[in-house]
Amino acid sequence: MKFSYNWLRELVEDLDLDARALGLEITMKTAECEAVEPYGQHLERVAAARVLAAEPIPGGHNRKVTVDTGRYGVRTVVCGAPNCRVGMVTAYVPAGTELPDGRIERRVIQGIESDGMLASGAELGINRDAAGILELEANPGDPLPGCVPDQILEIDNKSLTHRPDLWGHLGLAREAAAIVRKRLLDPVRIERLPKGPAPIRVAIEDFDLCPRYSALVFENVTVRPSPLWLQYRLQAVGLNPINNIVDVTNYVMAELAQPLHAFDQDLLHGDTIYVRPAREGERLTALNEETYRLDPAALAIADARGPVALAGVIGGLDTAISARTRRVVLESACFQASSIRKTSARLKLRTDASMRFEKGQDPHNTVRGLARAWELFEQVSPGIRLVGGLADCCRPLSTPPPIELPLDWLTRKLGRAVPEAEVRDILERLCFVVREGGPRVFLVTPPSWRATRDVSIKDDLVEEVGRMIGYGTIAPEPPRVACTVPPQEPLRLFLRAVREAFVSQGFTEVHNYSFYGEDLARRFALDPAEHLAVANPISPEQKLMRRSLVPLIYRNLEENAKHLECFRLFEVGREIHPQPQGLPREIHHAVAAIYSRQEGEGNLYELARVAQCLMPGAEVRPAAPRSFEHPARAGEIWWRGACVGRLFELHPALLAGRAALLDLDLERIHELGPEPKRYRPVRRFPTSAFDLSVIAPQRALIGEIEKLMVRLAGEDLDSIEFLRTYSGPPIPEGHQSVSFRLRVGAADHTLSLDEVGEIRARIIAGLRAAGYDLRL
Amino acid sequence: MPESALTLESALSELEARARERILAAATREELEAVRVEALGRKGTLAQISRQLGSLAAEERARVGRLLNTVKQELEQLLAARQAEFEQRELAARLEAEWLDLTRPAPGPRRGHLHPITQLQYEIEDLFTSLGFAVLDGPEVETEYHNFDALNIPPDHPARDVQDTFWLVNGLLLRTHTSPVQVRGMERFRPPLRMIAPGRVFRNEEVDASHEHTFYQVEGMMIDREVSVAHLIYFMKVLVNHIFQRETEVRLRPGYFPFVEPGFELDLACLVCNGRGCPVCKYSGWVEMLGCGLVHPNVLRTSGIDPEEWMGWAFGLGLTRLAMMRYGLDDIRWFQSGDLRFLRQF
Ligand SMILES: [Zn+2]
Question: Does domain A490-672 bear CATH number 3.30.930.10?
Answer without folding.
Answer: yes
